[in-house]
Amino acid sequence: MATPESPPKFASRDPSHPDFWSERFEKDFMPWDTGGVPLALQQYVQRSQPASVLIPGCGTGYEVAYLAEAGWDVTAIDFSDAAVSAARAVLGKWSERVLQADFFSYEPPQRPGLIYERAFLCALPPARRADIVSRWAALLPAGAVLAGFFFFDESPKGPPFGIDRAELERLLHADFELADEQDVTDSIAVFAGKERWMEWRRRA
């Protein structure tokens, strides 16, 4: 398997295009892959009532099975066909919960009570941030939650593309209020010391 220190050569260099991600899945180069369900999400599920949840840019999608088995009505999407295939390969009976779709145009059958953020915002170039936030706001009704992991870093290189906390708050403030946040204790190397679990509630 290729490692971040010795990555294979890639033809696609634009992370806003699905080919970028498909090529990396096909070459088994996934340094962002946690290999499991993060502790902060498990704790959130344990203290929350099940709801309809959307996972944009789900990648391998380990969380899909965890949420479904906990009674959450989960739908996961990714615009990369290789990512969808990888997720379906590991999810077994929950594989039908993963769809190939573009987050910016996908219309869920019902408005989600939760959007789970796991390395989606930091996967796309910073120029798409305002579009992502607008889509989060459009999909979530008042009182619904945007919860997950937010990557704070000053390096302009990516992905992952880190964001300044002040910029994140500026982008979210009009439509969301911060309800809770916690340290992350089980980060993988690429995110270690630079991410926080945050819960943002959609304003009325």
TrEMBL record:
Matches recorded under PANTHER family: CYSTEINE SULFINATE DESULFINASE_CYSTEINE DESULFURASE AND RELATED ENZYMES, PTHR32183
Q: What is this protein called?
A: Tellurite resistance TehB family protein
Quick one: a GO biological-process term for this protein? methylation
Note the SUPFAM superfamilies from the entry. S-adenosyl-L-methionine-dependent methyltransferases
Q: Which Gene Ontology molecular function entries are recorded, alphabetically?
A: S-adenosylmethionine-dependent methyltransferase activity
Show the Pfam families listed in the entry.
Answer: TPMT
Which keywords does this chain's UniProt record carry? Methyltransferase, Phosphoprotein, S-adenosyl-L-methionine, Transferase
Q: Which InterPro entries match?
A: SAM-dependent_MTases_sf, TPMT
What organism is this sequence from?
Collimonas pratensis
